């Protein structure tokens, strides 16, 4: 009985270690993703950065952003279009 408990404890310890390693890998992956996003957004001007971040990262609609920035929805669309075009061009190089 004692050996069984000892084996279970050993297995549980291995699972805890694997979970710990997986968690650290997830954190590193998130850091890399955040760094990539920040680096990519730095290629944009402030207004483009605001629009792209709000739409893609925060889930705002173009209409909501238009209201917040006090500009028309077509203007938001144009800013987004130009920003994404710029990013595509930069990332293809």
Topology (elements, then pairings):
Blueprint (H helix, E strand, L loop, with lengths): L1 H40 L4 H12 L4 H8 L3 H20 L1
Key terms for this structure?
93 residues, mainly alpha, single chain, 86% helix, Arc Repressor Mutant, subunit A
What does this protein structure show overall?
By secondary structure, the protein is an all-alpha fold. The chain folds into 2 domains: 1-42; 44-93, Arc Repressor Mutant, subunit A. It contains 4 helices and no strands. It is elongated and about 60 Å long. It starts with a helix and ends with a helix. 9% of the residues are buried. Mean pLDDT is 80; it is low at 1-8.
CATH topology of the largest domain: Arc Repressor Mutant, subunit A
What is Rg?
23 Å
Beta-strand residue fraction: under 5%
Question: If helices are DSSP runs of H or I spanning 4 or more residues, what is the number of helices?
Answer: 4
DSSP summary, beta strand count: 0
CATH architecture level-2 label of the largest domain: Orthogonal Bundle
Oligomeric state of the chains? Answer: single chain
Low-confidence stretches: 1-8
Total of domains: 2
End-to-end C-alpha gap: 64 Å
Find the structural class using helix and strand composition. Answer: mainly alpha
Output the CATH class name of the largest domain: Mainly Alpha
Mean pLDDT: 80
Helicity level: over 70%
What does the largest sheet look like? none
Please tell me what the overall shape is.
elongated
- Helix/strand order: HHHH
